[in-house]
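Entry for adenosine-5'-diphosphate complex. Fields follow.
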Amino acid sequence: MGNTIISVKDLRKSYGKFEAVKGISFDVYEGEIFGLLGPNGAGKSTTLEIIETLRDKTSGQILVDGLDLDKSPDKIKKIIGVQLQTSGFYPGLNLLELIELFSGLYNVKTNAMDLLEMVNLKEKARNKYKEMSGGQKQRFSIATTLINQPRIIFLDEPTTGLDPQARRNLWDLIKSIREKGTTVIITTHYMDEAEQLCDRVAIMDEGKIIALQSPDRLIDDLVESGFERPKVTKSANLEDVFIHLTGKDFRED
Ligand code: ADP
Ligand code: MG
């Protein structure tokens, strides 16, 4: 694995009297897909938004590519890609127009068609955002994270609410982004997804990191501790049935 690209030390965040993040420390390595897992309210989005410079921290130290978040937030903004809230997109503009608009905001030149091709939306370039399906909207919002050619992208629950085909399609997209050298930080509630995608995962609960390892290692450790699933599992599950019957083809295009 590569060098440390994000270093978080003793990060704390309080909302009034409530401490949402209780002194967490972790490193993210360059080129990895790092997963932040945990139940609702664990503090995942708060943590991400602090690293993204969108939310103030209460205390702690954060370095992004060697840059101190307290001293150089603007420099950090230039090397990260953040998935915008989809509600922030102008529904009446087409995809090309939206990318042009964001490129202007970032003050960078983008080949919008290349970007749309990468997320498999070239044919939809002149369709309005509001005409897209859920999966297409997610792919488009991932495309927007790449506009400023970032070193790191942050994806907060990018596959929530998608059908199994659209989810797999997004996994391929995320893997292809990482293969180009971009570091990916992702949150998800789907453990199969984390197992498929993530090199390492941090599991958060009530503002603390309670485990940090590769998925494989975490599973092996649990098995070694004597854990066994209550039932012998079948060699397929209902999702396998669904994919087997309906195929892996992406439908919406
Ligand atoms: P997660 O993304 O893991 O679901 P969040 O980071 O969104 O968790 O939230 C962590 C905790 O902080 C939750 O209890 C949530 O209600 C609280 N919280 C998040 N944002 C705010 C806010 N702006 N003001 C007050 N409490 C907040
Ligand atoms: Mg969240």
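NOTE: Strands lie at 4-15, 18-29, 33-37, 59-64, 67-68, 80-82, 152-156, 183-187, 200-205, 208-213.
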